[in-house]
Specification:
Distance between the termini: 39 Å
CATH class: Alpha Beta
CATH topology: Rossmann fold
Radius of gyration: 16 Å
Oligomer: single chain
Length: 253
């Protein structure tokens, strides 16, 4: 663990259902669960968490894979990805399933909401974890779900490309919440093949409750909107979305 890269964070643990994971926290105010993309909580993910804290929220970063603070390298990315693919906590290939890790994340969100207070909890998922924020929306406390380049299950074939990593029962509950007024923010590069056709699925499922923020791809490598290929407009839209739901400030348009 690179402590210097995690400066300003408290390092703790959270246990639920027999699973204990490292959790990083910084800031004060309503909780926002920030779920890293592969390979894990890199320095750039930690930087994004600090920006969430700067608006008046508590950024809560659970370590779902990898080593917190470690910089991303191709080898490290491949090893983390291989581990995620075989873990039973993540449904990297199965359709119409909610990843089991979502249950642990929902428990973490409930705990942080009780600790931090506020009108509810926000969540930001990225790539491998992108759809987890949607799965957490089954709980009423999740009022600000953000999906950045959601990429599970892997977009192999048309059906997986469109799949939202949700069980039928969770999908029905999320439709109820969307119809009751809960919005979902999504971000992606238009040429990102890892996202597949999920934005079309989200529009069909959620209607006007789905707010899409899309950026034209300039290279085939464009993928990580909030961290590696940072789009400042996208970061601003996320932060304003979180403010509007958790701090009751107006959203930028």
């Amino acid at each position: 663990m690179d402590i210097d890269a995690l400066a300003g964070y408290e390092i703790d643990e959270f246990a639920h259902g027999g699973t204990t994971r490292t959790v990083l926290r910084t800031g004060r105010g309503p909780a926002v669960i920030v779920m890293a993309e592969m390979p894990g909580i890199t320095p750039r993910v930690a930087d994004f968490g600090r920006r969430v804290a700067a608006i008046g929220c508590t950024a809560v970063l659970p370590s779902l894979f990898g080593t917190p603070g470690r910089r991303a390298t191709p080898g490290y990315l491949l090893r983390s990805l291989a581990g995620g693919c075989v873990s039973r906590e993540f449904t990297a290939f199965l359709r119409r399933r909610t990843s089991p890790v979502t249950d642990w994340l929902r428990a973490l969100a409930a705990f942080e909401h009780g600790r931090c207070g506020g009108p509810g909890v926000g969540a930001v998922g990225m790539c491998f974890s992108g759809g987890f924020a949607l799965g957490m929306m089954v709980d009423d406390i999740m009022v600000a779900p953000v999906l950045s380049q959601p990429s599970m299950p892997f977009a192999i074939g048309a059906k997986r490309s469109a799949d939202l990593n949700l069980s039928p029962s969770d999908e029905a509950r999320i439709v109820e919440r969307a119809q009751a007024g809960c919005q979902v923010l999504g971000l992606r590069f238009t040429g990102d093949k890892l996202v597949g056709t999920r934005f079309d699925s989200l529009r069909k499922l959620l209607g006007d409750a789905f707010v899409a923020v899309e950026f034209e791809s300039s290279t085939k490598q464009d993928h990580s909107v909030l961290t590696e290929q940072i789009q400042e407009e996208g970061v601003t839209r996320v932060l304003e979305f979180l403010k509007s739901k958790l701090l009751k400030r107006p959203v930028l348009r």
